[in-house]
Amino acid sequence: MRTALASVAAAVSLAISGGAAHADNVPKPTDLATQNAVADYNAGNFVAARSEFRRAAQKGSRLAEFNYAMMLLNGEGGPADVPEGKKWLRRAADANMTHAQYVYGKMYDDGQFVEKDPAEAHRWFLRAANQGHVQAELALANQFLDGRGTARDNVQAFNWYKKAAEGGDMTAQYVAGSFYERGGDGVERNLNVARAYYAAAAAQGDPAAKLKYLQLSAELEHQKPQ
């Protein structure tokens, strides 16, 4: 059975080949071996892809290190090898591939393949978020909001939600809207800004955001001078 992390490898490969609309801070394959591996992975030829990713990873390709790690962890193209997979994922993260840093942090946040350690997750989320990785920004915001892996801090939570919202994350757009709708925690209440964030999330298909957008639209219309 493929784990939740399997989709990450697929998403990265598709993004590189043009098959996915969005993948944050994923380096493009510059070497032929990695390009061939991506093509074979997308074609479903996992055995060849795994071998090609391994060879490219051994030559220092960060994307190959990451995708080889995912294939090892998920048993794609051969038997699963968790220790080896974690080693290559850490190597990609240490090489400053922000998506690898995010996934490495998520592994600790979820307790998947490792013992759950929210503080270690926080450290990796922060490294990736500080470089503009949108999913890491959202994960960091959630940690600050919950006090998980770090002290609870609603001001920091809002700052990271706003960054992720500006990066196009639908969930962050909704939450940023809710902060502006209620005000507090260093945020001045502003229904017009809240409405704009809800509209952005609604445009991406969030039904709750659409309802909020309609509610605030009606409220703001009612507040207009007659």
Average predicted confidence as pLDDT: 88
* Unreliable spans: 1-24
**Secondary-structure arrangement, i.e. CATH architecture of the largest domain:** Alpha Horseshoe
Q: Could you state the order of secondary-structure elements as H and E? A: HHHHHHHHHHHH
CATH class designation of the largest domain: Mainly Alpha
Helix content: 55-70%
Task: Please tally the helical runs, counting DSSP H or I stretches of 4 or more residues.
Answer: 12
CATH topology of the largest domain: Serine Threonine Protein Phosphatase 5, Tetratricopeptide repeat
Biggest sheet overview: none
Structural class computed from helices and strand pairing? mainly alpha
Q: Radius of gyration in whole Å, from Cα?
A: 20 Å
- Apparent shape: elongated
Q: Strand share of the residues?
A: under 5%
Described by its quaternary structure, the protein is single chain
**Number of E-type strands:** 0
Our count of domains comes out at 2
Q: What is the first-to-last residue Cα distance?
A: 62 Å
Instruction: Please identify which CATH superfamily of the largest domain we are dealing with.
Output: Tetratricopeptide repeat domain
Protein name: Sel1 repeat-containing protein
Pfam family, one: Sel1
InterPro entries: Sel1-like, Sel1_AlgK, TPR-like_helical_dom_sf
Organism: Caballeronia ptereochthonis
